Amino acid sequence: MGIEQRYANVAAEVAAVCREAGRDPAEVTVVAVSKTVGPDAVARALAAGARDFGENRPDGLAEKAAAFPQATWHFIGNIQSRRIPDIVRSAALVHSLFEERHARKIDEAAAVAGKVQDVLLEVNVSGEESKGGLAPGDVRALLDVCARLPHVRVRGLMTMAPQGDPAAARAVFEGLANLYAQLRAGLDPAQAALFDGLSMGMSEDWREAVRAGATIVRIGRAVFDDAFEA
């Protein structure tokens, strides 16, 4: 099965799961995670209808964003301070902000680039030491810091769930969705209108994420890896 058919299958199943959950499929963006593939694979996914792509390294992000400016590019990797200007130049949305020092450097880089950088705050809902992200109780403080940075716009939250346990993944996703709702309720109407993103769910667990309210799912292997089995 080729990339084109695999992407079409993923998009169709995402729409079906949305409908089963009583949601509009238009509410969920599929980010095709292209970090392990080259330009040919990206071109094939584009031809199949993909419009959003995710990269976890600044170099890969810059190269592919330059090659495919018609796509929307997401940065989904760990943020390194020295690479923030490179990330800001190419990313429409940064999914992995959880340090104040990085927020301030993103603000500076975005000012130089003449843009307002959309970001998601990464939350470590599961509490796993191997995962980065804010503790749920610390999210509000960073949200308040970012609100004072003119070139940073927080669009929502992101998390990753433990692998291999659908029930644990669902609990993590529901926890993030609850935190998101609590935070959004405390924002003024203008802020709340822009605070509209929940990035959660990958190839193994996106179904649970959609049922819990995800607006962005990050799917790589199910699109690009012929060896992946759902």
UniProtKB/TrEMBL annotation:
N6-(pyridoxal phosphate)lysine PTM positions: 35
Molecular function GO labels: pyridoxal phosphate binding
Cofactor needs: pyridoxal 5'-phosphate
Protein's job: Pyridoxal 5'-phosphate (PLP)-binding protein, which is involved in PLP homeostasis.
Xref: PANTHER family: PROLINE SYNTHETASE CO-TRANSCRIBED BACTERIAL HOMOLOG PROTEIN (PTHR10146), PYRIDOXAL PHOSPHATE HOMEOSTASIS PROTEIN (PTHR10146:SF14)
Residue intervals of the Alanine racemase N-terminal domain: 25-224
Full protein name: Pyridoxal phosphate homeostasis protein
Keywords on record: Pyridoxal phosphate
NCBIfam families, A to Z: YggS family pyridoxal phosphate-dependent enzyme
InterPro entries in the cross-refs: Ala_racemase_N (IPR001608), PLP-binding_barrel (IPR029066), PyrdxlP_homeostasis (IPR011078)
Domain of life (superkingdom): Bacteria
Record flagged with keyword Glycosyltransferase: no
Family to which this protein belongs: Belongs to the pyridoxal phosphate-binding protein YggS/PROSC family.
HAMAP family the record matches: PLP_homeostasis
